[in-house]
Every structure is written in structure tokens, then in C-alpha cells.
Amino acid sequence: MQITNKKKNANRMRHGEVVKENVFEDGVVPLRWLAAALAACGAALGVALLVDARLPAPLGRDAPPDRFIAEIAHEHLVNLTSIGPRVAGSYENEVLAVRVLVEAVRRIAAQASPHNVVEFDVFSASGAFSLTFLDGMSNMYRDVQSVVVRARGAGGRASPARSALLLNCHFDTVPDSPGESPHTAAAAHSGALFVIRYRYRIVHAI
Ligand SMILES: *[C@@H]1O[C@H](CO)[C@@H](O)[C@H](O)[C@H]1NC(C)=O
Questions:
Q1: pLDDT band at 44 (very low <50, low <70, confident <90, very high)
Q2: What PANTHER family does the record point to (predicted)?
Q3: 146-165 pLDDT, tens digit each
Q4: Most buried of the four, 62, 108, 143, 186, by CB within 10 Å?
Q5: Which residues have any ligand 1 atom within 6 Å of their CB?
Q6: What is the pTM of this model?
């Protein structure tokens, strides 16, 4: 009994008051940690500003086609975000966003050089997974759509390894978002990357 009390006291000194079994009150964050967090945020901001200042100038459509053309990426982004918030399962996400993506892929495929093949598919998947986030939560989804595009070189020897480089992102957003997310930007960039690739003979499938 005495040992347990000692243990309890030691825990209390380390963690603060017991809220419930094995859960201790967190206490106040010491000022030096707050100062360290502020300094870390300031340093991260400084690095971000430096990197931002060194970014190359965005290119327009008149740039050589083997470069990353920011104007096209921005247009993909505008086309997708002008739909507004796209919650999984909503008309905006399942019908309008899929339509924008499929139309963009069709345009890319139509302009592809004869050396390359651009194929696409829209498929639905259902499943479930659990996360240990917060108190733990289970995620279930049914008939969530994906737009899959594969670009590869036409003809030639078939590659024995059925491998490809996967560029992957989700295009849905949370309900109160402005319709933009880092993943939407990734979708736009993938589209622009595709535009770079399909003009040349693709050696490795994407
Ligand atoms: C954006 O949408 C417009 C209207 O549908 C279309 O003409 C244009 O080609 C699209 N842009 C891209 C990069 O797909």
C-alpha cells in the first residue's frame, strides 16, 4: 500500500493531479517551451520565405513543352476549385469533379503523340479502416470513385515488370472548405506533369 502511494505521489509530481485512472492533468506549459515553439515557428517561416524567393518564375503556354507549365496547372486548379466544396458522396464531387477530371484526361489523350498511349478508367471502391487518431475512429466508405490514368509508350517490347510511377491524390474536400486543398493543387500539378510527359515517348509508365 505504501509503495502504491509512493508511486502515485511520484506520478503526481511528474504529471500533475490524477483526472481518472492513469490519466493525469497536463498542467501549464512552461514558458521556455512556449518560447522554443515560437522560435521554431519563426525559423520555419524564415526558411519558407527563403525557399519562396528562390522558386523559378512560373511558365506560360509559350514555354517549351518539356518544361512544367504553371499556366496549365493553374487552369486545372481553377476548373476543379470553381465547383466549390466537394464532399465525398456529394453531387459536386461524384458528378461535377469527376466530369472535370475525365474531360481533362480526354483532352490530354486526344493530343498525345502517336508514340504514347493514355488510358483512363473511373472505378468505385468500398471498404473500411480504423485510425488511432484522437480516441480512435473507424472510417467506412462505399462506392467512392477514383479516376485512374495510365500513360505509357506505345509498341516496343512489353516491360516484363508491370511497374509504373504512381502520382496519387484525393480530390474531395471538407464541407466548409473554399474548394481548395493541398491535394487539389497536387491533382492540378499531376495534370500538368502529364502534359509534359505525353508529348515525348514514355519509357516508364505513369
Ligand atoms: C478548363 O475548362 C475549360 C472549360 O471546360 C476548358 O476549355 C479548358 O481546356 C480546361 N483547362 C484544362 C487545363 O483542362
A1: very high
A2: ENDOPLASMIC RETICULUM METALLOPEPTIDASE 1, METALLOPEPTIDASE M28 FAMILY MEMBER
A3: 888 888 877 766 666 667 77
A4: 108
A5: 72, 75-76, 79, 104, 107
A6: 0.69
* Cα end-to-end span (Å), the chain: 66
Strand partners, 146: 123
Contact in structure between 105 and 147 (CB atoms under 8 Å): yes
- CB atoms under 10 Å from CB of 70, counted, come to 19
Q: Give which of 128, 167, 170, 182 is closest to 145, Cα–Cα.
A: 170
Closest C-alpha to 167, from 195, 186, 145: 186
State the average pLDDT for the chain. Answer: 81
CA distance 122 to 188: 18
pLDDT tens string 189-198: 676 666 655 5
- What is the reported pLDDT for 101? 92
Ligand 1 pocket: which of 107, 118, 147 to mutate (most atoms <8 Å of CB)? 107
Q: What share of the chain is helix, strand, coil (3-state, %, to 5)?
A: 40, 20, 40
- Residue 87's contacts (CB-CB under 8 Å, 6 or more residues apart) are 93, 172, 173, 174, 175
Structure-block grid coordinates of residue 15: 504529471
Of 125, 173, 167, the C-alpha closest to 146 is: 125
